[in-house]
Amino acid sequence: MAQTPQQRRANERFAKQEAAKRGKGPVITKPKQTTKTPISASWLVILAFVVCGGLLLELLKVVPEIWSIVASTLSRITG
């Protein structure tokens, strides 16, 4: 059953009275939580060194091979 306009006005009046009785409560703010990483910064640096160091060593090993292939191809083309 739907509310009649008279019931709706009565409900609004009652809600206003109850809100006035309650008043404004203190505003509760939650303290900001700091997120802690599961791994420390020093371990991240060590992990990055291991991964990037291995990649750097592989590049140093591969680059001369690639350069020799390019140089031999150029010498065949020009020579």
UniProtKB/TrEMBL annotation:
Residue stretches spanning the membrane: 41-60
Instruction: Tell me yes or no: is Membrane among this UniProt entry's keywords.
Output: yes
GO CC aspect terms: endoplasmic reticulum membrane
Give the UniProt keywords, A-Z: Endoplasmic reticulum, Membrane, Transmembrane, Transmembrane helix
Per the UniProt record, one Pfam family is RAMP4
Keyword set includes Transmembrane: yes
Question: How is this protein situated with respect to the membrane?
Answer: Single-pass membrane protein
Residue numbers spanned by region Disordered: 1-33
Primary localisation category: membrane
As for subcellular location, the record says: Membrane; Endoplasmic reticulum membrane
InterPro entries tied to this protein: ER_stress-assoc (IPR010580)
Q: Which domain of life is it from?
A: Eukaryota
Q: Where is the composition biased (Basic and acidic residues)?
A: 9-21
State the family it belongs to.
Belongs to the RAMP4 family.
Question: What does this protein do, in the record's words?
Answer: Interacts with target proteins during translocation into the lumen of the endoplasmic reticulum. Protects unfolded target proteins against degradation and facilitate correct glycosylation.
Q: What is this protein called?
A: Stress-associated endoplasmic reticulum protein
Organism lineage: Eukaryota, Fungi, Dikarya, Ascomycota, Pezizomycotina
